[in-house]
Amino acid sequence: MAASRDGFHWTPSTGLQDGLPTIGLVQPAHFDAPCAAGHNYDVIVIGAGYAGLVAARDLTTQGKNVLVVEGRDRLGGRTWHSTIDGFNYEMGGTWIHWHMPHIYREVSLYGLHNDWLVTQNPGSREDYFTVTAGSKQWAFTHEEEDTVIGRVWEKFCNVDGNDLRETWKFAFGTGQSPELLAQWDKVTCQERLEQIQSELSPLDTAVLVAFLQQMGGASLDRMGLLNALHWWVLGTHEPLGLNRIALHTRLSCGHSELHRRIFTHARSTGRLSYRFNAAVTHIKDMGNTTTVTTRDGSTYTASSVVCTVPLNVLSSIVFDPPLSMGKQAAANAGQVNHCNKVHVDLRGPDYMSWTAFSSPGQGLICAIGDRLTPHNDSHMVSFGPDPSAENGVQLNNIDGVKSAFLAMLPAEKRQEVVINRIVSHNWNDDEFSKGTWCYLPVGTASKYLEELQAPHGNVLFASADFSDGWRGWIDGAVQSGMQAAHRILTQPAESKSLWPAASL
Ligand SMILES: Cc1cc2nc3c(=O)[nH]c(=O)nc-3n(C[C@H](O)[C@H](O)[C@H](O)COP(=O)(O)OP(=O)(O)OC[C@H]3O[C@@H](n4cnc5c(N)ncnc54)[C@H](O)[C@@H]3O)c2cc1C
Fold it and tell me: Which of 132, 310, 425, 469 sits a CA distance of 20 to 30 A from 432?
């Protein structure tokens, strides 16, 4: 299988090797549909992540002549999988669910509705939950794990005494009280933790801090409370709702397979052209048309553009005319999630059911037993904080990653465990993501979300980072891509300036 330049892989025998095999690689990287003479298109879609792929599919299947321009050599953006020795490693976005309606539509449309795998399976020898806080360690059953996580997460989010059941009823709705949202958006997760600290035991605090850091990939003073509350509501206002929906099921075939199906569908229309390995540097809107320029100086023209680059990448593209002050301010504030995600395969089947939290952790803060590999090793998914944080680890420091992982194990087990493989993608040093999944800092969502969603002349924006609904998740990407395509398809050309901005 051909390899993308993204990601890396380490084993004791090969050492560290850059690049990973994936079915998401697009070769050849350039293709012109027969109708694309003269590089004039109806729509240029920038980015081939879920938002871009869905937008391109919806536009081409509705008769539009579309060019996709993507900086990477592969499909999928912040979701893709690599198959190594018969096992699918999801390098970015992984868990999806039928309670995520937009991505589930894609899953069922392309016949993958029976293709589920479950993470966290019971029955291996080390079937328990370890919490480490400094030199202290606790061991719990998974039932106890659910109880403590559910209890602290609910306490944290219960800012109105009624679990937001009335004050934030509709997770996908845009009609919440702006005053309440603005009020919650003034508070950081650190401040909220301090508000409830007296009600938490040391164990509760360790679990809650690790849980929040695993969600937001930043120190708690950089994470906005509003983002956490939104995810609580998305988790159906239930203590374990978020975990059950968003950390549980994944596609057996891997996300790159679903990307290929969407991409192939768009190609089958005969109206899809594309450029991979083509980073967009400039977007110039000239009223009737818009020109997109790539790093090698190539220019392409279209009536409309759908820009799907992540929030943290937006300011690296030069817009003419410049983006509104609000968009610029939001792009400069960015999203704060710079976590590391690391796959660790442990020799033998013993740890498939094991889970761990570590607070503050020595580079990694959680481990989740996933499944057995074809070689009967325990595949673990682990997350760590921002590598530049005091408790972070740089991914190219393999010894550091190994000891960070081992530090989460019960002390008496550390000597016996053998790490057979490490696989990861450095999303933070990646110029096309500059971070992982979106977690917004304090004061951002209530202030800039509408502005981020609004078109800029002929340019529409679609991204999981500022979608409604599952903002920060795969589902949000699909939703926003679908909405951008729909706007283009339903709006007469002469009334583009009347495109309504979506609201929070
Ligand atoms: C480590 C990790 C774990 C995650 N886990 C989950 C999970 O379990 N479940 C879940 O639902 N979500 C998860 N997410 C979040 C989810 O993957 C993202 O929210 C979603 O995939 C974003 O899709 P998108 O299309 O909005 O953006 P992206 O996928 O980032 O797509 C944007 C595209 O634009 C391209 N691009 C950027 N700049 C340029 C440029 N200048 N020129 C041309 N192209 C450019 C990028 O290469 C990319 O392909 C995770 C993300 C990460 C990184």
Answer: 469
